[in-house]
């Protein structure tokens, strides 16, 4: 057994593994209370071997309502008890996260001024908060005390105080947001008082602290050298970032980006390594200086992560894409994972029942691979055929985009699994007719229609370009009507060797991605010309005519080729149960989900 999967003493309790499932937004709440969906979600990670589960951060005072389904501690007592009852049979410790977002919250729900140490507008929302006075500070400390006492009465093993990237406590600790001249100009004072109040309320239960130790703004913010680590805590989670700097990198950032920060803070108390840790080998090495490792996204991608560690098998990989696990969004999506669509849906995700007989799966992209995997797990005799010479489908194409190579790890794992499960695989084979067996059709997509005229010019589909199609010499124009990762990724990729312009009908490039600012900054650094609010009308031999979508004004852009990144259409195929892009081209998540549903329903 690895050290990571072995037990560890934390405070006065013992966790069955050193893997921590950290607090994160889920949108699983009913109103502002922890719900049955939370219970099933956390139970599943406890079953999989998580040592400590830290529940979604609950606001300690009604003045904090950072997102619509944010838990409120006063309403969380029954939920905490149910979560403890669900996790206790597996030995997993349950810790309640308590916090207040302060000036980094939202006034959209309670329609009151945001609380903050000083009148410093948030750089993201631009909202100006109120400066807290004595009554508000007393109410905040009292809120932490009352919330901690309720959590203890509900049976949790401990409390984690959120003084992390998006917390009011961080705002008091940082010179960026605390400009007070009264007693709380001592920036660590409020944190010390909250720690003391919570310790008094919970007694000898575990007390953890998630602490922003690097604001990413050394000109006035917290740095590792000035981070105010208080005494009286049982573990410390050093985190990086603030409203002034990113704190949740995606698949472009190497996992374990907080290794040095955690090592630097390890002399204070038991430390927890946090920061995109999805590689068990890296987590194991970190135990040379850390007591625990937070592997939250890794356990969203595979709830059985620790079981795999104990069995010596490979867990389903987290590719760090943020596409389904980052849910702070006006649409209130439920937390999930592109490769594990059951995450967040434990209360309705059906368990596969045993089956038998032969099944043909046509198509070896993510939908076909997941269908074949689940069918094989159920006991079916499965044959999978794929037209291309390699399995993986469009995921392998997407993995060629700039910065998105980690996506291929998901289909690598699926391919390994179907081979391990004995699925018979044929590549380079196009199946045109059924032979009496049940057929699941995962044949993918074709380029869709174009709403512009081609008059002697060269237009190439983005998939063919990423597959290696030769481009003529000269500048290229990337037509991006979707605003997702595709257009921006191929533009950045090609800009390394030629002049590139990206044309979008939107006022900002890549409007559908989470990190819009970062994407646009990378494009500008790469020298890509950004033509916004425009669409192509005519593609000619050496230029394309584009039209302003609002004014109708036309202009010419020189180009040797246009790369089309528009919608795709299902590829015509043989009769059967269609899944994935063969139904409607969408994302990896929908492909995997379709494959699983079809395999469970058979």
From TrEMBL:
Q: Which UniProt keywords apply?
A: Flavoprotein, FMN, Iron, Iron-sulfur, Metal-binding, Oxidoreductase
Q: Which InterPro entries match?
A: Aldolase_TIM, CHP03996_oxidoreductase, FAD/NAD-bd_sf, NADH:flavin_oxidoreductase, OxRdtase_FMN_N
One Pfam family of this chain: NAD_binding_8
All residue ranges annotated as the NADH:flavin oxidoreductase/NADH oxidase N-terminal domain in the record:
6-223
Cofactor(s) for this protein? FMN; [4Fe-4S] cluster
Annotated NCBIfam families: mycofact_OYE_1
The entry sums up its family as follows:
In the N-terminal section; belongs to the NADH:flavin oxidoreductase/NADH oxidase family.
What is this protein's name? Answer: Oxidoreductase
List the taxonomic lineage. Answer: Bacteria, Bacillati, Actinomycetota, Actinomycetes, Pseudonocardiales
